Amino acid sequence: MTRRAASTSKGWVDKKLADPQFRQGFEEETQKLAIGEQLSRLRQDAGLTQAQLATRIGSTASAISRYENAEYDRYELRTLQKIVGACGGHLDISMSPGPNTHRAAQTRRQQNEELEGPASRRM
Questions:
Q1: N or C: the chain end with fewer CB closer than 10 Å?
Q2: Which of 110, 106, 108, 59 minimizes the C-alpha distance to 85?
Q3: Residue whose C-alpha is closest to residue 80's, from 122, 43, 27
Q4: DSSP alpha helices (H): ranges in the chain?
């Protein structure tokens, strides 16, 4: 791909991501792809087939295949914990407020900062 084509593609992507509805769908699909890819990589790094992993957690190879599929979107925390644990891994879930955090949460955060005063912000 030429430099010009790459910059044109980037411009197109930036324009598409400016649409909130497109961005939300894009982020959801990226997240699903990342989960499936991580599960597959973790299993392979553990030297396990889907059938071997399924036996370890009391499931089926087809269920493991579904979890590794980028189209799958019905993950259950308990099953993720079983899969990751059986592969010798550790499951971390992270959450953070988005740009459209509810106004009440923003107000509470501002009130807490005001109560803590400038000394606590310096640390």
A1: C
A2: 59
A3: 43
A4: 3-17, 20-45, 50-57, 61-68, 77-86, 103-122
Residue 119 lies in a domain: no
Q: List, for residues 32-91, the tens digit of each pLDDT value.
A: 668 899 999 999 999 999 999 999 999 999 999 999 998 888 999 999 999 999 999 999
Structure tokens at 77: 């925390």
Whole-angstrom Cα Rg for the chain: 21
**Identity at 69, one-letter amino acid code:** N
Q: Which domain holds residue 88?
A: 3-97
Residue 74, domain member (yes or no): yes
Cα 3 to Cα 7: distance, rounded to the nearest angstrom: 6
Instruction: Evaluate whether residue 50 is within a structural domain.
Output: yes
Q: In angstroms, rounded to a whole number, what is the distance separating the alpha carbons of residues 39 and 3?
A: 34
- Whichever domain contains 42, its CATH number is 1.10.260.40
- Considering its fold, how many domains does the chain have in total? 1
